[in-house]
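I would like you to help me understand the sequence and structure tokens below and explain how sequence relates to structure.
___
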Amino acid sequence: MTEQSFKLPDIGEGITEAELSEWLVKVGDEVREDDPICEVTTDKATVEIPAAASGRVTWVGGEAGDVLAVGSELIRIETDGDVAPSEESEDPAPEPAPKPESEPEPETPAKPAKQPEPPAKPARRAQAPASATMARNAAGRPLAAPSVRGRALEMGIDLRQLRGTGPAGRILHEDLDTYAESGGAAAPGSGLRRRDTTEEVRITGVRRRISERMSLAKSRIPHFSIIEEVEVDALEDLRASLNARFADKRGKLTLLPFLIRALSEAVLDHPEITAHFDDEASVVTRHAALHCGIATQTDTGLMVPVLQHAEAMDLWEAARDIRRLSDTARARRIAPENLSGSTITITSLGPLGALATTPIINHPEVAIVGINKIAIRPVWDGHAFQPRRVMNLSCSFDHRVVDGWVAAEFVAKLKALLETPAMLWMEWRDD
């Protein structure tokens, strides 16, 4: 048997380093060539790294949150032999790489068969009470084996209320027993319980990228926002009519394709809105193309896939591409080229949206358009108050590039187009 070392491969796009977002294997695991072994996050996307050989993992080069340079040692695999995992395979792991000990998953499922191991386990568990943190996996859930999770569900125990005594704070079956014996398990009529646990969650992966980009945007861009009320009765009636007639053949239309159509018209009179500002070089680059970023919530955080050349799409083309990009982003399989190059961004909280928001600009863009929820409100028609479907637009601008008057004109243009949707096609064909 031979231990081989494998390096973090070149991911492309000129990337020189990547963050380890999640290990999909651990020391002692058997892997086959091309099996995914970890996920790394770059400025562009999350990428799976496959195994370069078959064998048993003997060492991993970091833990979730660590940043590795391309070409640095990533993993060691023992090859040329069919080595079954054994009790001894778990213990040597901390010597070459103490960090991987944070994920010894096989220990809990195999625990009933490891009764001869009492000396090793107390030594490991003794480390957990010293920590005031709750260990979590990459998805943000407490660390526990599937069997422990299933038993906790049957006992009515919320794993977030426990601090595990296993390796790296992993919750074990004994922790469930202790919690239940102490009266912590939920029971009919037990009343409210105190919550005394604390936790520290390390910011990694996509969440770290979001943190960095938002900090950059707020520290370097002087934001100002304009919030405008838009009546959408006519627009919603048109959307419902089109969906009733064409949804089965062309797909369902949401509000977004109509807003994108309105944006493509509004920016014709205000080219300074779809621009990038290089504040270090003091250069504003105006883009005739409407490459529209669509802020999309995923399990790992907010991502912004880009609808390229939205100005050249009809409503159904835009709807199909938005759906495709959103689905691939949520599945964490979106291509890096679909996450860059936006000239303006749209953000929406859908039905959860508030009356108004103050969205943060996606650097180096100079504007962002926020959609708030539609609600029925009384609107004065000159004679009486009438119930109308109303939505607020919340638009933020970079005051270094966009003046308040220009921003107000742009928002007024959007309002006029959305309130009278027939204008979208009339102006589109007016050459």
